[in-house]
Amino acid sequence: MTAETATTTPGPRALARQRRRASAARFWRQYRTHRAGVFGLAALLLLALVALTAPWTVGSDVQSVTDAPGRPLESPSARFPLGTDQFGRGLLGLVIWGSRVSLLVGLLAAVLSVAIGALIGITAGHFRGWYATVMMRITDWFLVMPTLVLAIALATVLSRSLGTIVLAIGVTTWPTTARLVRAQTLAVESRPYIERAKALGGGHGHIMARHVLPNVMPLVLAQTTLIISSAILAEATLAFLGLGDPTVVSWGGLLQDAREAGAVSSGDWWYLVPPGIAIAAVALAFTLCGRAVESVLNPRLGVSR
Predict the structure, then answer these.
(1) Are 77 and 57 in contact (CB under 8 A)?
(2) Distance between CA atoms of 61 and 36, rounded to whole angstroms?
(3) At a CB cut-off of 8 Å and minimum separation 6, what does 248 contact?
């Protein structure tokens, strides 16, 4: 090999980067063919922009009860497009500010849930034997138990904070991911290159980290996008039941405040509809993105476009 050839041939890291870029470009080309997925992604990007710019667009003082600019339970008007809450705070600003908490809790809870499920699924699929039996029986127990009941029990026992909500959702929603990842791990470990890696002296950690994990990551990614919507709904449910952090504003907390203020019986619809629509919209957007990601990563699913 000449010196010129050696300098023009890319190294292993450069080749790996090129393959990742090509894979990402191929994924995006296929993803763009799913109109529903593109619509969901656009909605999520818009919502993320609104949430990130909330400190400059509405300001943190929108949460203040003592400096509320309006009268309690004002109907929508030019000054307050979505009306006011029971303290006289503008609901538009509260919904925008609440998006920060709801999205953050949903994302963190989904990441925790998928991390637990992936860890248990990969290890149970790799080691098998008594360990896999024990882990799968624990998974089955969590599957048959009502997730919301377990989350409520944890949120009741622990202190009322955002960390508690994230923990309660994350440790009760992982079994589905564990089942799916274990099945994929068993399929991957039956391939010939895994046997070659073991014959060459590859240890358990090497095989799981370098061979199994990259092959199950597409499944984990798709599962994450689907769980985020469920986590946001669970956070709203726990906050609606009064188990969230009372010092922060979230969409579920707004619904709980509306219930306490008697908005349902008094007909103050503007107190209930905006946070409810926001929860439904973001859950639908994540679901659309998740279905599109599933279809791209596994075309056999046949998800409609």
Answers:
(1) no
(2) 37
(3) 63, 101, 162
For 98-107, how does the pLDDT look when each residue is reduced to its tens digit (9 = 90+)? Answer: 899 888 888 8
pLDDT in tens, 45-69: 999 999 999 989 888 788 888 888 8
Beta carbons of 70 and 89 less than 8 angstroms apart? yes
Whether the model pTM is above 0.90: no
- Six-digit token pair at 305? 């476009």
CA dist 73 and 77 (Å) reads 12
Closest by alpha carbon to 102, among 169, 177, 183, 157? 169
Distance CA 299, CA 16 (A): 25
Assigned token pair, 64 = 């203040």
- Inform me whether the pLDDT recorded for 304 exceeds 80: no
| Among 137-141, 218-222, 280-284, 288-292, the least confident range | 218-222
Is the CA virtual torsion 102, 104, 110, 113 positive or negative? negative
C-alpha closest to that of 98 among 137, 58, 138, 132:
58
Confidence of residue 24 (pLDDT cuts 50, 70, 90): confident
